Amino acid sequence: MALFDKRFKDYRFAEVTNEKGKRTVILDYVGNYFYFQNRERALRAKPLLIAYAVVMLVCWFAALAIKISALTVPYIVIPYVASAFGILMVGKAAYVLIAKKEPFIRTDADSLGFKLMVGAGACFILVGISFVGTVVGMIIKIETWWGTLVPDIYNVIFLGLCLMYMASAFLSFRLRKAVDLVEKFRESEAESEPSEEEKALEKKKEEARLADRKQADEIRQKNLEEEKKLKGELLEKNTAKDAAFTEIKEDK
User: Fold this and answer.
1) Residue 207 domain-assigned (yes or no)
2) Which domain holds residue 65?
3) What is the CATH number of the domain that holds 86?
4) What is the pLDDT of residues 38-74, one digit of tens each?
5) pTM for this structure?
6) Cβ-proximal residues to 151 (8 Å cutoff; 6+ apart), any chain
């Protein structure tokens, strides 16, 4: 829960004025930023992590595209298919390295740290279960939908794909140390000196607030004048009616 609390506190709603003078509300990141602990090592790890993620994805699809009898066994196919969630986590880490630059926000830092570790570890464990289940099934010659599980060419290919998959997951798990990040805390607003852009933006916001206040005062004053005018006209009409009524009464 603490992680989610930090994520929520990293954002706040801010009101900005665009070039056309229109004010809009945006979600502004105000949390801490993260930097590589060893930038050179992280840059060297970048192509490796991308390659490992691609190998894992290719192995996953290749095994499901071939008619492999081992994948008709529930305790073999279920963990293998479930490992796709781990590939997504490793792929997200690779995407962050490709598309994002330092400094990283907290969500990107999570992808390069905790999620990379969990994703790679889950892939290694789940595919390992499928690998061991296949080997044991061949030894005891269990029955599948397509006959007895034997070490035919397709099942041997599946075991090879599992080994490649597990090796890539293990190496990806080890790379998490290469992309370690360091959190740098932001200075408090009271201690930090606002930049020129922030000062200009604050000045524009203040001018917009004053303009809105002036316009509101003008509208309010105009409404008061119109109300006063209407009251005067109504009073004159009532006075004229009273005078006419009094005159008619006196004539009678």
Assistant:
1) no
2) 33-184
3) 1.20.120
4) 888 888 999 999 999 999 999 999 999 988 888 888 9
5) 0.65
6) 138
